[in-house]
Amino acid sequence: MTAVVDPYSNLELYELSHVWGHGVPMLPGLDDVAMYRNVRHGTHGVMTHHFKMSMHTGTHMNAPIHLVQRGAGAAAIPLDSLFGNGVILSIPKGQWELVTADDLAAASPAIQEGDFVVIVTGWHHKYSDSLEYFGDSPGLSKESAEWLVEKGVKMVAVDTPQVDHPLATSLGPQRNGPLMNRLVGKYTSETGRDPKEDHPDWNVAHKTILAANIPTIEQVGGDVDDLLNKRVTLYATPWNWEHGDACPVRFVAMIDPSGECRIEPGLAE
């Protein structure tokens, strides 16, 4: 176990984010993160970095406005969608497989109304700047996204590079794609199927979730394996950015083995 134990409350804290920095895996079609130290300890006695980057890097949260015109931006995500109780579910999937509504309905612990739902396919173990990580990943089906919306969950997180199957995104033949030129041919060659017939709608799962005003987190990682199939308390820390479409987040899970921790009432003494 890799928990950090808070000495006051005895809460166990778990990191669910990938380490972020220079060379972070970047979605094909997006520019690499550019960073430099414009102020350095050796010269100035202090350090400051400048960045030029897409906000969709590393473990990051997507606001509804990302895919929904006039949707809520990052600053408009309700605070109770950033801190709350939920489940971390192991739903193993391999190359190009879909997380289905049946998978979610059969999951244990059961998903409840108001839950934060973290779907772990195992793909986070492949996190890297690679064709496999981005192009061969599993994703959520349209029906699974609709199931989550109907269940009334508050947040959805996945350990894959995108919520949808890659052939349902611009990585494949959708919209401005394919951003991965080899992907369509590889899918056809290895499956004998037409990707446009199998995945006719662009980002349909992700758009379904965001249209219901449910924020999403992509590329969950860290120590998530330590908490598979458990109920936990989760919090994420996006920027208070008006109209922001996405930003990297620190994603943390908490459990209370003793069952004795309570939030202080905050009353004046």
Provide a descriptive summary of the structure in words:
- The strands form three sheets. The chain has a ten-stranded mixed sheet with strand order 1-2-14-12-6-8-10-11-5-13, with helices on one face.
- It contains seven helices and 14 strands.
- The chain is α/β, with parallel strands linked by helices and 269 residues long.
- It starts with a strand and ends in a 14-residue tail after the last strand.
- It has helices spanning 41-44, 101-106, 131-135, 142-151, 183-191, 195-198, 204-211; strands at residues 4-5, 12-15, 34-39, 48-52, 60-62, 83-90, 98-99, 116-120, 139-140, 155-158, 216-218, 230-236, 246-248, 251-255.
- Helices cover 17% and strands 22% of the residues.
Features:
single chain; 269 residues; alpha/beta; Glucose Oxidase, domain 1; ten-stranded mixed sheet; two-stranded antiparallel sheet; 7 helices; globular
Helix-strand layout with pairing:
Blueprint: E1 4-5, E2 12-15, E3 34-39, H1 41-44, E4 48-52, E5 60-62, E6 83-90, E7 98-99, H2 101-106, E8 116-120, H3 131-135, E9 139-140, H4 142-151, E10 155-158, H5 183-191, H6 195-198, H7 204-211, E11 216-218, E12 230-236, E13 246-248, E14 251-255
Parallel strand pairs: 6-8, 7-9, 8-10, 10-11
Antiparallel strand pairs: 1-2, 2-14, 3-4, 5-11, 5-13, 6-12, 12-14
